[in-house]
Task: structure prediction
Amino acid sequence: MERYRGARWHSPQLEHVSKHSHGTRRRYALVSPANANGLQESTRLVVPIGALYTPLKDRPDGQLLQYEPVTCKQTCRAILNPFCQVDVRSRTWTCPFCLQRNQLPPHYKDISQEQIPPELHPSNTTVEYRLARPAPAPPIFLYVVDLCQDADSLKALKESLVMSLGLLPPYALVGLITFGMMDYTPKQVQEMLGLSGSMARPANMAPQPGRPAGPTGPSSRFLLPVSQCEEQLTSTLEQLQKDPWGVPNDKRSSRCTGVALNIAVSLLEVSFQNAGARIMLFAGGPATIGSGMVVSPELKEPIRSHHDIDRDSVKYYKKALKVGGTMVTHCQAYVFQFYDTLAKRSAHNGHVIDIFVGCLDQVGLLEMKGLPNSTGGNMVLTDSFTSSMYKQSFVRIFDKDANDNLVMGFNASLEVLTTKELKITGLIGHAVSMNKKSASVGETECGIGNTCSWKMCGIDRPRAMASISRPPVKLDLLRPLLAKCKRG
Ligand SMILES: [Zn+2]
Result:
């Protein structure tokens, strides 16, 4: 997207997009080739049209409506907006996407040309609705802490975790997993912890009015509301010690990061599917044993370097990306598959995975990058947990708004509707496809395409999503541009 920003636009509609997509006052930009000129121009466009959307953006002058939106009764489910044609006499409105005429709801009976509801006001091209539905479950924060690290770094990490407990809402559920040398398969550990029972979401997850439901099922033993366990968890965190297993001079620490992450994902998968949750990994080095091992514990075997990645010469790297669902025996290929599968599982469950690294050397972020990428997590790479970059980045995750609510959203979905002049080619951002087909979806794919709906496990303020559409122009004109876009 960046590379299109500097392009010289020839169309007034595109200038509109360009201006608003940079703007801080609009969430998204609109292209409305509603008249004959616009339609003609749209067919002449050779660059894809993009819209940037920043969820949770602070808009002091924005409209926050405390009622349900009026939607189109057709399958398109478009929401009543200033671009809809409203006939105040017959109390009907025409959906600009499917051209269906809809009746306005009874409580809109008093509208007139002079008196229109806020969502129809021409200046309100973006409005927010706050619905009176309770959150299905409290937010969950699961800390996954690597104990194989320097005493100083571990001490600083412990302090930041204790501090974070005070930033969480008292009803948030919190849990702690520590790891070091643990040589069990994920299945063995799940069985030991009694987590291998039913994967179904318990029926009694229905919340009490005004209050999210508490934990249920076997995993409830490992997650408790902050208000109930803050003291005990603080004391547990303060007593954490460096992994007791000695490390010979010619070896790396034995660290089963992959197994620990698998446990965290399984723990939440059992009872908290589609509840808002963050798994926060704090790694002090690369995974060296068990599933997800990035490099062997032998120091004489070097981890693949930046240079190797640059030249695409990582042993089995390409092959690993091509193997798809087929199991391959080599460790490197298996590692990519392992983390990719974990990322998909977590994204499917609706849970975010953040990775914080306090290590001078590489830890295998290349292999693990799918975890935050697919789930909307953060990736913070620092030399040590004593660094101020880590501390500042970590605390910003718990930023609060003017009403003392965390600026953090879980399990968001984004749906893009277009008029027939435009087709969606894809979305660039930390999302997964929900594989929803509609007349808006184009044949060309750029970013995450072939769908008009995407899921984001986590959203927060600094993020923006780019949705790309294109007018139905000749494909051969578009091809070089799309190729460029893919590389970018
Ligand atoms: Zn419609």
